[in-house]
Specification:
This protein is an alpha+beta fold and 472 residues long. It has twelve helices and 18 strands. The radius of gyration is 28 Å and the shape is elongated. It starts with 8 loop residues before the first helix and ends in a 19-residue tail after the last helix.
Amino acid sequence: MKSKRVGKPVFFVIFVLILALSYSAFFGFHDYFGDTEKTYIKGANKIRWGIDISGGVEAVFSPDKKGLKITDSDMESAKAIIETRLTGLNITDSEVYVDKKSHQVIVRFPRTAGNDDFDPQEAVDKLSASAQLEFYEGTEKNGTPFMTGEVVENAAYTYNQENGHCVSLKLDSKGAAAFYQATSNAAANGTKISIYMDDENISTAGCSQAISGGQAIIYGDFEQSEAEYLAKQINAGSLPFALTTDTTSADGKTTGEGGKLQIISPTLGNNALKVMLIAGAIAFGIVCIIMIGRYRLHGFVAVIALLGQLAGTIACISGFFPDTNSFTLTVPGIAGIILSIGVGVDCNVIAAERIRDEFKKGKSIDGAIDSGFKNSLSAIIDGNVTIVIVSLVLMGAFGNPDTFFAKLLSPIMNLFGSSITGSIYAFGYTLIIGVIFNLIMGVLASKYMLKSISQIKLFRKPALYGGKKNDK
């Protein structure tokens, strides 16, 4: 059965779309209103670099009180909660490990996403807060709370016209009963319900009637980002004990007792990053020249597809759209991009060699292209699916500890140690994104562009596709 021909304009449509994606992914779209920058599409300059490139913070957390009875289980619990909070801050390139003998939790992490005025102490405070949620009848934190955060099944950010940015709470049956009783008392006596996070009053409100159904709302003078983080903090749970760190000044002197906080200088630095980018650009250029030189028109189409693959990968890392966060790109993450480009080159080489083989069998241009892509598909799919599976395993074993894959593969992660988890996760992420775009660009886009351009009379020459001049 003959394959359906692809119209001549298809090549130009795909080519223009890839160019548009490439420009927007690398340079983005933004405008200025006075001194305020409005970002419509994020470019590569919005990528958040990992601690191994841009530096970051190292914090050594210790219990804030002496004489506490702390078990190994408490230390592991504190580690897991801090890892979840780091994920809530969109910090994936982090290193968290515990010293059970000294009762310390050591954390290393880069700058937070979208925060140009990076305040390391603020970030550390968010991680070390015990985050104990308590509900009191009245306006003061007196006596025993009628319920705590342990009864909260889920917290979520919400917004309404009356109260603005809020956090909605879903309570379990025990919490629903306690909240109903407390709001009944408040409605009958004209008193209020106060909610505290550690020692800070985050919400105080009156009740006109008893509230049933296990739903509660925390509202106050919140910004959206504050309400969103509060919800994530509640979902992460409270630490088994509050933590503290020292503050390290710019001259390296520390104050206080307990842990330590210090700023980490970049291990590669901006100059080294520029060298890496230049070297990558040169290598990409050499690959393009070799592809075009050996495979002619198919090589040119392959280069366009590789550009689309790289642009799609960069877009997924930078966040692309203004309301999404940038992924943390590390040195292993860059290695994942490079490896995925190599996979993309291999994909196009396999297809091009199959097309050459079809010309040797006496096929026409159309027949050779159709059969070449068809015969190469199984080998390409097999190779790419294998890499996808490996990437998923890496992301599951070394990613967010609360995911299904992380729980399933935790024994593997423990063999390697937690100090490399963020970097390995970044490698898996960029590799799987690159492979997905390789399947889109290197298989689909390449095929339709080549079938389309082959319909143009100027390019109806077998020699342009790997055949000989005397082929039909």
